[in-house]
Amino acid sequence: MSLPAPSAPVDRLVLLNPGPVNVHDEVRTAIAAPDSCHREPEAAALINRVRVKAARIGGGDETHTSVLLAGSGTAALEAVFSSVVPADGRILILDNGHYGDRLHRIVSVHDVPRRHLEFGWTNPIDPAEVDRVLAADPSLTHVGLVHHETSTGQLNPLREIGEVVARHGRQLAVDAISSLGSEPVDIRADHVDWLVGTANKCLEGLPGVSFVTAPRHRLDALETVPARTFYLDLYGHYISQDRRNAPLFTPALQVLNSFEKALDLALAEGTAARGERYAALAGRIRTGLAERGARFLLPPGHRANSVTNVHLPEGIGYDELHDGLKAEGYVVYSTQEQLAGVFRVANMGQLTEGDIDGFLAAYDRVIAKHVEAAA
After folding, report:
1. Domains of the chain from N-terminus onward
2. How far apart are CA 96 and CA 109, in angstroms?
3. Which among 252, 205, 233, 207 is positioned nearest to 78, based on CA atoms?
4. Helix intervals (H) in 110-193
5. CA 206 to CA 215: how far, in whole Å?
6. CA angle 29, 23, 267 (to 5 degrees)
7. Which of 262, 296, 310, 369 has the fewest CB atoms found within 10 Å of its own CB?
């Protein structure tokens, strides 16, 4: 069989990993903003603009605000899950993958009173089971959920779970790190009390900034909750940014400049349109791999629009596939140890149909070389 010549672009890697992503040129350029001091009025203005835009991307209105943190999405997760549960409260962690387990590890490290409800990797979270557990255990005051569990590519039923949690009068904290910007998320309609996002996935910014969006009254109520951590004390960051008009600690101002541009682009495109763009690219990946005999980890109805988890072709290891593709200009992603034999192909960021077609052609060449070498 005659294979097409390598078509990977020579000036960039096509990032098919679930963040960081290939970004818009305007986002990349924005990081070259002039050096500035984080205690000056222009820095405060930038922080306030980004807070407003970050709240808007999650469906927040004037009753909501965002708190910015210098760090990856896990920094914002730890800020929320270590800060929002009072000493007499208890949180129910919903877990069906690596990142659900990460939530449990965060609350365990901080000795937050907790209950761990596991559904098993690749299984969707069942709102009826959440309903049953909350009805039977009034000590549970909070619920933690990962919306898009990228370890498997599973999209969990946020709206349905939010309705259950709200009906029981509990608070819902959501890891929307890998969904916000491309999947439908509405902090009000979904009954979310604490929404965690990051710059460098479906919002198509650069790594280094994460954020928490919440109703102001929820943030104000944290005044009476003793801090369990110093740097990631959510109430401390909120009061400093919102009342004192200054960051609590030194922020990543240059990255914030880029993030503001990314938010502007995301708000202009709209979540629905970006979701359609991502879904079309994911469809192109899935169709192309299916035509090549690939087996997928999840059935179609469970998959998010930005990550596809695929079983490795028979006889080839992940390192061989990854290294062969990277040599051609394409970066795919491994999975955790629980899913040995599976790799991930993401389509977040500024990707084109040509990028996907080039990946599929490179995939053919890598597999053909493997078959030839094994003969």
Report:
1. 26-268 (3.40.640.10), 270-374 (3.90.1150.10)
2. 20
3. 233
4. 127-136, 158-167
5. 26
6. 95
7. 369
Contact 194, 224 (CB under 8 A): no
Please list, residue by residue across 182-191, b when 16 or more beta carbons sit within 10 angstroms of its beta carbon and e when fewer do: bbebbbeebb
Joined tokens for residue 190? 């979904």
pLDDT in tens, 37-63: 998 999 999 999 999 999 999 999 999
**Mean pLDDT of the region 308-316:** 95
Say which DSSP state 302 is in. Answer: G
Report strand pairing: 142-146 vs 91-95: parallel
- Find the helix or strand (DSSP H, E) in which 325 lies: helix 318-328
Q: Tell me how far apart the alpha carbons of residues 182 and 166 are, in angstroms, rounded to a whole number.
A: 24
Whole-number pLDDT of residue 12: 83
Q: What is the C-alpha to C-alpha distance for residues 75 and 199, in angstroms, rounded to an integer?
A: 12
* Residue 327 CB neighbour total at 10 angstroms: 13
Instruction: List own/partner pairs for 215-219 with CB under 8 A and 24 or more apart.
Output: 215/63, 215/64, 216/63, 216/64, 216/65, 217/63, 218/84, 218/171, 218/193, 218/194, 219/65, 219/67
Cα-flanking dihedrals φ and ψ of residue 23, to 5°?
A: -110, 165
> What CA–CA distances, in Å, run from 233 to 76, 78, 88, 197, 305?
10, 9, 18, 17, 33
Contacts of 258 by beta carbon, 8 Å cutoff, 6+ apart: 23, 27, 28, 30, 31, 199, 205, 206
Burial category of 224 from C-beta neighbours within 10 Å (exposed 0-12, middle 13-18, buried 19 and up): exposed
Rounded mean pLDDT of 137-158?
98
**Cα 201 from Cα 104, distance rounded (Å):** 22
Q: How many helices (H) and strands (E) does the chain have?
A: 12, 14
pLDDT at 10: 52
SS3 217: helix
Angle of the 73-83 helix axis to the 98-109 helix axis, nearest 10 = 50
How far is residue 357's CA from residue 362's CA, in Å, rounded to a whole number?
9
